[in-house]
Here is the input.
Amino acid sequence: MGVLLRNLQNVVPLRRARLRKDVETLRHILGIQKFDLGLICVDNARIQRINNVYRKKNVPTDVLSFPFYEDLRPGKLPCSMHRDDFNLGDIFLGVEYIMQQCQQTDQDFNGTLTVVTAHGICHLLGYRHDTAEEWNEMLRKESYILSEFNRLTGSHLEPLTKKCTRDV
Amino acid sequence: MFKSLTRAINIAARLTNKTATASSTRALEPLVTSALCPPNSASSRPFTRSIWMMCNNGASSGYRPSLLTPKGVLPSVSCGCGGLHTEGDKAFAEFLSDEIKEEKKIQKSKTLPKMSGGWELELNGTEAKLIRSISGDRVTVTFNINNSIPPNMEEEPEQGQKSAENEPEIVSTPNFVVEVIKQSAKHALVFDCHFPEDEIAHGEGEEESDIFAIREVSFQPEGDAEWKETSYTLNTDSLDWALYDHLMDFLADRGVDNTFADELIELSTALEHQEYIKFLEELSGFIKCN
Here is the structure.
């Protein structure tokens, strides 16, 4: 049970221990420690390929989530009985894209990585942002997670949903 | 065509020392059978048998003086070296000459690619050593290009589609050992690293292994001193993932990261190809008694 971390790119130097620690904090806040999740760090080329295959959008992006449970009601954890089902799915982090965005907006890379990961985990838990209602629901959840994260770590992170446009 | 065949056999021959998967062994089987096992093939059987019949001077065969000397059986060409030279050797030497020309044609550069990050390269035959000092820490990475080409998991292309363009590129992905020596420490911290196979396979799927991985970690005496089996060895198979991440970060801080791993593959591939050509030239010289 845990976070399966993979770094498949060589563009951005990644601090694996820091990323794992921050994701473990997020898991603790959400109470999902008994569920596995995959975190795969990729470059622009690879996330663009995945984005094109699964969303028909041939552009790089910051995060793509692949939920293990596709029809979860937001906020309701899966009631798994079998050990193999204690899995939330995989999050692909476009770390090269995130780094570029951080450089343009003068933001901290590791903090942004946590914000983007929190957004990805929300998707694994059934949150969407296709409608205004869904958008607000997801924003509330992200705000809660990050306020707890800030309280525990002394950070000043803000939700990704707040910043992004509706087509993300 | 020759090039691809010989390279395939070359790989097949190299695979004999490794544990090949069933699928790759099956794919190479026809090549191995026809090229490496002539005594069992139907076409060579009559010839082998005819030598036996001509050399057999047992009671049942009778005495046939004119056919008994081996001179008449094995066509030899003398070069004064006192060794055996056959027509087969001549054909072999010609074949090697063509093969060497082909390999030199596809060789990207005669010089080995440079590693970024100030690594110094030392070569000893097939073994390479990369050395770097960083703020008092001395880091040494050692690898050997022998048996460093993984079995190709790709399916063979359809007949008629085979050409130089769709021939799979040979990539050398050796296991490598990273030794970190601190001025104040008595022992070196040694990392046994490797390239996981699903990352280096050429499949279309999204492979999800790290570019390189740590297999084992232990403390060992510095330099070339004998490997101590009695030192505790940390196996990463059942390791706490947080500890594993700290070990990876430790290596990254000393220049052993994904960029390094990618460059090491390039260096190893170039070195392997260079050594392959050298071997072919030596083989050619041996056959011709140069």
About this structure: Chain A has one domain: 3-163. Residues 100 and 106 of chain A are 10 Å apart (CA to CA). The longest strand of chain A covers residues 87-94. The interface with chain B takes residues 2-10, 13-17, 19-21, 24, 38, 40, 46, 50 of chain A (CB under 8 Å).
